[in-house]
Amino acid sequence: MEKRSESVEFEGVVGAGGTLAIPGECLESLGIQKGERLHVRLTHRRLNSALQKRGVTEEEIERISKLQFESRAQVVKFLLSEGAMSRKQRPFRRKSVRPGARG
């Protein structure tokens, strides 16, 4: 027996009247039957302005996503968090002292 996926991602196009077709293979991989209720999360493919300023492209996000086996949302979250721990006002200082080193 084949193991079922917990979630699946696909790109779709909103059709007339706001319809969205879900590919059959996506439904099959989740074991979803016709008439079954679903929880759906929609994400617009608009690139964040902070990432645009840094020169990040959709193609780069897609490349990182495939390379790291991560969803687009996770890649965007990571890229937005880069540098969040550093502060330009004060440099990072080591809080622990290595054995034998003078503090």
Radius of gyration: 21 Å
Mean pLDDT level: 79
Shape: elongated
Strand content: under 5%
Order of helices and strands: HHHH
Poorly predicted regions are none
Would you count the extended β strands for me? 0
Q: What is the helix fraction of residues, given as a range?
A: 25-40%
Sketch the major β-sheet: none
Rounded to the nearest angstrom, the distance between the terminal CA atoms is 61 Å
Q: Compute the number of helices.
A: 4
Oligomer: single chain
Topology record:
Layout: H1 24-30, H2 49-53, H3 58-68, H4 72-81
Helix pairs in contact: 3-4
List keywords for this structure.
single chain; 103 residues; mainly alpha
Structure write-up:
There is one protein chain. With 103 residues, the protein is an all-alpha fold. The chain has a domain at 16-81. The protein is built from 4 helices and no strands. Helix 3 (58-68) crosses helix 4. It is elongated and about 70 Å long.
